[in-house]
Specification:
heterodimer, A: 0% strand, B: mainly beta, 5-stranded antiparallel β-sheet, 4-stranded antiparallel β-sheet, 26 strands
């Protein structure tokens, strides 16, 4: 697993900082999308896998987000909004995946909802597995807030913009989620 | 919950996220962005954009109408002869004596779906999302009578979940039903009786405070009760498991290495017949049979065991040897352990040896899978018929065939255990 320092700490060069988005000629949407893809596709797939649980679906969600960007790039207020658009698209795409999975299970009337199922490499550490299992039991919005905050290190205002909620909602959601996690994992602490 | 607790949780979350996200490696990502369709990449400020929005769908509708006019309406009006309609959905495989092959099931490597595949065409007709708990794996998949499949998901430390996957008649819209929980923790192989009542399984049970155990179990799926368990030496690996129709007998073949399991390591393989009513819960070696190839199937009445044997008479062999040997498909009496008939012979090597056997619920046809090739053996006439359809090469090393009432199906399990 290759995690560069920039990937681990997006504020120091990763994808979270909007100011670092490439700003190619706005008349060349292909170039803008290509640059964004080169810089952020990996991080976006990694966020998506945290939200949907499996790599093929995560890759599909991110591909769809970039295709959507091709079509929407001229509606954006500026190139610097493109990354925010991608993040929101990925989060929405992950929600759609969960909706379709839930619909399938309700239709079949059996089984239990699909939960986080990381690749085996991530499951190697028991404490990480327990933490992710506890996260998987949280409500959808809590999972999204935690992934954006603690994987991408995004500040609350950017999380709020990505999820389309207020900053206060982000803060209170994160606080509640952490409390629940702390209780769930109390024995491990 | 204290502030220190919250800080600790935040650190754990970061670590867990980094680990999980790190499963996506840079090499996994395509170097090029997805290619958006040209129609989706409109030029900004194009003067005809508004008109195009109307004109494009209109042109599409007109084109469809034109095609319908040319291909359907005009020939009907003029009475022109035309070819009989072809149903492309119809399987192209040669019908089998016991029925037509219908569907197989497989669990792809992503471990998140069960693919239902038309046995004749090889096409996936449905992809059934399957629930999986964190750290869980799908460890067994087999067919039962009536065209459905049974699969087991296992998660360390928790009960294993048994599911039935029932495809619709067309192979689409399969339903998934959780039918049982196994108390044990590490199921590594399963077999289901033809009517789906009895589930035989091997379980690597690893309690936290006690030594690990390798167990064989027999579960009644209708009542949810465990009928019997047996213990196995931990060195054994499962190579064949079959249960008869009444749940009175289980046939097991298992092997272990003499050495460290490398290319030159010799293999010792044994077959056992287990009876739940017996007083001894230890394995009882089937007399007279040892060092055979391993795949097996028990007749519905439990009297005959069909097993692939190594016919060259070597006492030990390497599991990965390239050396050509003769394999024999034999019928064995479970009462005496004696070979009563050799039904088929072929040359092969252990290196390329992945044959699997499965008996249809009536006990007449034996499905033989050898790597990607499949054949049926009519036990009444002795006719050996190669099937036109092939298994996916990607699945050959974990193939696990099964049968159901309408004919053979060949589910294979792409999960390593």
């Amino acid at each position: 697993v290759t995690n560069t320092a920039a990937e681990r700490h997006p504020r120091r060069g990763g994808m979270a900082a909007s100011a670092q988005v490439a700003r190619p000629d706005s008349a060349d949407p292909g170039g803008l999308v290509a640059d964004l893809y080169r810089e952020h596709a990996l991080a976006l797939v990694r966020v998506a896998i945290l939200l949907v649980g499996d790599k093929p679906t995560a890759e599909d969600v991110v591909q769809d987000a970039f295709i959507g960007l091709y079509r929407a790039v001229h509606r954006l207020a500026g190139p610097d909004k493109a990354l925010a658009y991608l993040r929101t698209s990925v989060v929405n795409g992950c929600r759609s995946v969960h909706r379709s999975r839930r619909a399938w299970f309700q239709r079949s009337g059996n089984g239990e909802p699909t939960v986080w199922s990381a690749e085996s490499a991530a499951m190697a550490r028991e404490d990480n597995r327990l933490a992710l299992a506890a996260v998987a039991r949280l409500p959808r919005r809590s999972r999204e807030v935690l992934a954006l905050r603690y994987y991408l290190d995004m500040p609350d205002p950017e999380i709020a913009e990505t999820l389309g909620v207020s900053r206060g909602t982000v803060s209170s959601t994160a606080s509640r989620a952490l409390t629940v996690l702390a209780r769930d994992l109390r024995e491990e602490l | 919950v204290t502030a220190a607790d919250l800080t600790l949780i935040e650190d754990r979350l970061r670590a867990a996220y980094q680990d999980a996200a790190g499963t996506v490696r840079p090499a996994d990502i395509s170097p090029q962005p997805p290619d958006a369709s040209p129609s989706g990449r409109r030029r900004p400020g194009s003067p005809g954009r508004a008109r195009l929005r109307v004109a494009a769908p209109l042109a599409a509708v007109l084109a469809v109408l034109l095609i319908v006019l040319i291909t359907v309406i005009i020939p009907n009006l003029t009475g022109a002869s035309r070819r009989p309609p072809q149903d492309h959905r119809r399987p192209t495989a040669t019908p089998l004596p016991g029925g037509i092959p219908r569907f197989s099931a497989s669990i792809p490597e992503s471990n998140f779906w069960v693919d239902i595949r038309n046995s004749a065409t090889g096409r996936v007709t449905d992809a059934v999302p399957v629930p999986k708990r964190p750290g869980g794996t799908w460890c067994g998949l087999t067919a039962e009578a009536g065209g459905s499949f049974v699969a087991v998901e296992t998660t360390p430390g928790d009960p294993s979940m048994v599911y039935r996957i029932r495809p619709s008649a067309a192979g689409t819209s399969a339903t998934l039903t959780r039918i049982a929980e196994l108390r044990n923790t590490g199921v590594t192989g399963i077999s289901v009786s033809a009517d789906g009542t009895w589930l035989a399984y091997q379980d690597l049970y690893m309690p936290r405070r006690h030594p690990s155990q390798l167990l064989l179990g027999l579960e009644n799926l209708r009542t949810g009760r465990t009928a019997a368990t047996w213990s196995m030496p931990l060195i054994y690996n499962l190579s064949g498991l079959s249960v008869d129709a009444a749940g009175n007998e289980i046939a097991v073949s298992a092997y272990y290495y003499l050495g460290n399991g490398n290319v030159n390591a010799a293999l010792v393989q044994h077959t056992y017949i287990l009876r739940p009513g017996g007083s001894d819960t230890q394995l009882q070696l089937l007399p007279g049979i040892s060092n055979q190839a391993g795949p097996l199937a028990l007749s519905p009445d439990g009297k005959t065991l069909y097993e692939v044997l190594q016919g060259t008479g070597l006492s030990t062999t390497s599991f990965r040897s390239h050396k050509a040997v003769t394999f024999e498909l034999a019928a064995i009496s479970t009462a005496t352990g004696k070979v009563t008939a050799v039904l088929h012979r072929w040359r092969g090597s252990y290196q390329n040896f992945v044959p699997m056997l499965a008996l249809d619920p009536a006990g007449r046809y034996l499905l033989v899978v050898d790597r990607t090739a499949m054949a049926t053996l009519d036990l009444r006439t002795g006719r050996y018929t190669a099937l036109p359809a092939k298994l996916s090469p990607a699945a050959e090393t974990q193939s696990h065939p099964g049968w159901y009432g309408g004919g053979p199906s060949y589910p294979f399990n792409a999960i390593a255990w």
